[in-house]
Amino acid sequence: MIPVHPVRRRLAAAVTTVLAMTAGGVAAVPASAATPTAAVAATVKTTVDGVISLPRADQVLSVGPTGFLTVERRWDHTYYRWTSTVDGTTTDLPEWYSGYRGGASDTVVAREDGTSRYLLHDMSSPGSSPVIVNPPSAQLSWKGVIGRTLVFSSWDGQNRLGQLRLVGQGNQAGSDRQVTGLPQNSRIQSVEALTAGSALVRYVTADADAEHSYLAVVNVATASVVEKREVGVSAYETDAALSGDRFVWIDAPTTTHAKIMYATRDASGSTPAEEAADLGNTVRPHIGVLGDWVTYAAPGGAAATEASERFALSAVSLVDKSKVTLLDHASSTVPTADGALLVRGGTVAQGEGIYRIALGTDGRPAATLIASTGEPTALTLYTAAMPPVVDLDENDGQAMLRWVLSRTNAQGSVTVRHAATGRSVRHDFARAADYENKGAVDFRWDGTLANTAGMKEAAPSGDYTWEFTASPLNGIGPDVRQTGSFKVVRASGPHDYTDNGTPDLLSLDASGVLWRDDSVKAPSAPQPYSTGRVKVGGGWQIFNQLEAVGDIAGRSSGDLVARDGSGVLWLYQGNGDGTFATRTKIGGGWQIYQHLAGGSDLDGDGRSDLLAVQPSGEVYFYKGTGVTSAPFAARKSIDRGWDVYNQVTATGDIAGTTAGDLIARDKTGVLWLYEGKGDGTYAPRTRIGGGWGAFTHLVGLGDADRDGHPDLYAVGPTGTRFYAGTGEATAPFKPAAPGNLLWDTAPVNSVF
User: Fold this and answer.
1) Whose CA is closest to 389, among 496, 482, 460, 485?
2) What contacts 244, CB < 8 A, 6 or more positions away?
3) Which of 244, 350, 657, 739 has a CA 20 to 30 Å removed from the CA of 517?
4) Is 27 left (phi over 0), alpha (psi -120 to 50) or beta?
5) CA 599 to chain centre
6) Is 15 helix (H, G, I), strand (E, B) or coil?
7) Are 90 and 82 in contact (CB under 8 A)?
8) What is the DSSP pairing of strand 341-347 with strand 351-359?
9) Distance between CA 588 and CA 572 in Å, rounded?
10) Model confidence pTM above 0.85
11) Cα separation of 476 and 377, whole Å?
């Protein structure tokens, strides 16, 4: 039994009239007590303007007075469904390995798995139990169904003997009959129901010289061939059709050439065959007959990866050879009892579904959509599955961007562009990936953009646009182009001047030119490296000390302080694009300090602070305010005795606490850690190790290797070294690694 839910609404009378047919076949025989009853209940579908809402379907297989049979094939399951044209319900049929067939009636048939019996479901009454038919011999091959009569064939290849049998319901006399009028050496190729009481059979015979192929009309009532004619032998099983006065068939003498042939019906079956259309290398085309017109199409157009005019459902007149295009693609054709056709196909204008093809008042074929799957035939972009904000500090600096198309057979590109600079990255795709019966274009963006030197840099924060373009590989419908936007965010560090979350190294050469090296850490590189040396500007020789101090003026990017020869300290506020705003005077009297160390948040308020050391060894704390006009609060003395150090560097949190830390190198080359306590003071110093006197500059540049711990960069006459942070106070740095952050190895006066 196939249960159904109550009907929600009935279709317009016009749809029922469209598919009205004369029922055929014999009366139902009740099933035995062992009849299987497991089934999936029907889904009630609504209609819009008389068009049925239909689940996805790949082909229409048969049509009866009250509905039609469709199949949907997926990689894991094949779904057979019956859609009623009376009430709009669609019933999922129980899954059997044999699948389902129908033949010009409301009966659909499947073979029960693990048995030899066949189940006949009357879909005009889906809640009824199926009727069971047992074939007379296990040696018979099931070829189809005509109305409610099963058709079987057999072939003895050794003795070259074949037969066609009609098996009806029940075990009464006459329920199993051999079709007469076929030669003994007939090998049956296909059986297609024409009405509930007749079928078109294609069979092959062989004599001593060659094979011969025939079309025969079989009458179920008499179990006999009532008409036949010889047609060309084809390289594969081909489609055929019958009208009131013509045989029409596909002649495919080779696998690379097919043509439509037709001949007038007469008693002798010997009228000359004529060519209706040359289909070239079309493989397994399906055809239908409408009066003096023949429809044809190559299947597979919806999923094709190359364009072909043969995917369109076309019709050719057998009178004047004129042609008309009906659908943009079609996968299957079945005749209805009133001389029309049902076709599974699609048009760019109306989308995917079941179309009725019939002759209009002008005598020419026309297509009418009667059931829609709701899927577009034109390539369509459904969604751009990406968040409005992309945090590139997560997922190892990568972002998964996804666009979902209506199908997979599309090629195109995705361009992501930084709105402020115009820099972009492009992802090309040759075909969309399968995603829930749709097509997905996934761009795993590594969070970088190419700079002017062609090297990848971490993409800066800010507004981005994306442009998506796709072309249908099957040539059906227009190209797709759509744009959108999103925002990238990154946490900025003290040494980040380009707002891209990665530290920049600043250096000053002997001529007073300031240079910037942006760092990047690629998964394939063991250490971070420079993406290229960029000139910031000249004239910086007027300053005797430059110090990277982090964000002290209220912007997200790092700032710079510079002391001139008269002791005036100037603020250069970072613009976030690698440049600096016009300088602002902080104040005079700064010549009294030997060391300036900025970039660590010493008091835990979220802003960078400054440490200043006098030659006498007294240490002063300058709290950052975040105000451009007065970036530091009044100084506060916090320690003495630092005259033993010749290098003091703010490193950020390298000891694993929340507060910023400092390192200081004494005159013997020993490096010491001052772990911040978060109140503007430090814990007692901890010895890191000796041998650091070889370096002229120690730069706490931030987290260059993207492991969550600030790092140290060391520069000396004999080269540069990179010290990755560990986050442990007892051993805050890993062993030295090659330093690749200074692009130009020419001597520099200072690095910071």
Assistant:
1) 485
2) none
3) 657
4) beta
5) 44
6) helix
7) yes
8) antiparallel
9) 16
10) no
11) 8
